[in-house]
Structures are given as structure tokens and as C-alpha cells.
């Protein structure tokens, strides 16, 4: 029997009994979104952290010239939100939208804190997930600072092999910080 995807992810870090997982699941709300639906606008409060069960989302920032910069993609088994707005209860500076029809489990900050208090294993889980996310972000920033476009592109292919087939090339270019033309040249170069 297949385990629930959220339980699988949690149990990569901490083990749960069936009763504990049922308790955890009670704190989440199922939410479904349509392709192209914006679930968090800039200026809104980020009420939820989303665990992606099925589908694909992204986090973007528009600069003063209206150019879109993609900070993050969120595929199955990933968490996605404007972390600063969510944790600080401030207005979002980012946009979160769906690139495919998406099913999520949403968790409010209050529920996250309650879960952490009442089931300390979950505090350990959230701490390790946050730490792993911070490390991944640090690696991405270092890659941007020390790698050329070709290396960034092949790093993306290595880390997220299925993403390139699910996302338009213009979005991949934005994520990598290159032009569409540069991406086209990179995709023709062998690693």
C-alpha cells in the first residue's frame, strides 16, 4: 500500500504512528487550484504554506520595469509560499501561481505552531526542512555567483531532471537569469 506523500516526506526525517499522522493531517486543508491561478498576490498576507501533492507552482517577483524573476518552482512533494510573509505575518512581496492544475495541503502558521507544540517530532521535521531549504537556497546563490550560465543550466538538469519538460523555456531562462536565446544555445551544448 502506498503511503500518503506527506507522510512519506515527514518520515524521511521522523517516524510517525498512524494516530500521529492522522493528528498531523487534521491540521492541513486540501486546496485545489487551476492552471494560471494566482494563489498569492504581492501585497496579500501569506496565510498558508503549501505542500504540493500534485501539480506545479512557482514563486515570482516583478521588478520595477515589470520584468518577472522566478525564485522557486514547487513540484510534487515540495513546499511553497512567501516564507518571509508567512512567518512574519507581513504582506507578501512575491507572487505564487500555478503552472498546472495543482492539488495542495495547506498549513496555516497557527496550525504549524500548534503541531510543533503538541507533537515535538513535527518541530524537528519543520526545523530540518527549513534548514535543508536554506542550504539549497545558499547553494543556488553560490551557483549564481560562481558559475557560468552553462554550469547553472546543467546543474538545473541534474537537480530537477523532470522540470525542463514541464516548464516553458522562457521560465527556465528567467529562473537561471539568462535570456531565452542564451538558454536555447545552452540546451544545444552537451554537458
CA-to-CA gap between the ends? 39 Å
CATH fold topology of one domain:
Jelly Rolls
Question: Approximately what portion of the residues adopt beta-strand conformation?
Answer: 15-25%
| CATH hierarchy, class of one domain | Mainly Beta
> How large is the count of helical segments?
9
Query: How would you characterize the largest beta sheet?
Result: 4 strands, antiparallel
Contiguous runs where pLDDT drops below 50 for at least 5 residues:
none
The count of strands amounts to 8
Strand order in the largest sheet: 1-8-3-6
Protein name: Crp/Fnr family transcriptional regulator
Organism: Labilibaculum manganireducens
Pfam families: cNMP_binding
InterPro entries: cNMP-bd_dom, cNMP-bd_dom_sf, RmlC-like_jellyroll
Describe the model.
The chain is of the alpha+beta class and 191 residues long. The protein has a domain at 5-114: Jelly Rolls, CATH 2.60.120. Helices cover 47% and strands 21% of the residues. The protein is built from 9 helices and 8 strands. It has helices at 5-10, 18-25, 83-88, 109-118, 120-146, 149-159, 163-166, 169-176, 180-188, and strands spanning 29-33, 38-40, 48-54, 57-62, 68-74, 79-80, 95-98, 102-108. The strands form 2 sheets. A 4-stranded antiparallel beta sheet has the order 1-8-3-6. A 4-stranded antiparallel beta sheet has the order 2-7-4-5. Strand 4 (57-62) and strand 5 form a beta hairpin. Helix 4 packs across helix 5 and helix 8 (169-176) crosses helix 9 (180-188). The longest helix is centred in the C-terminal third of the chain and has 27 residues, at 120-146. It is globular and about 55 Å long. The mean pLDDT is 92.
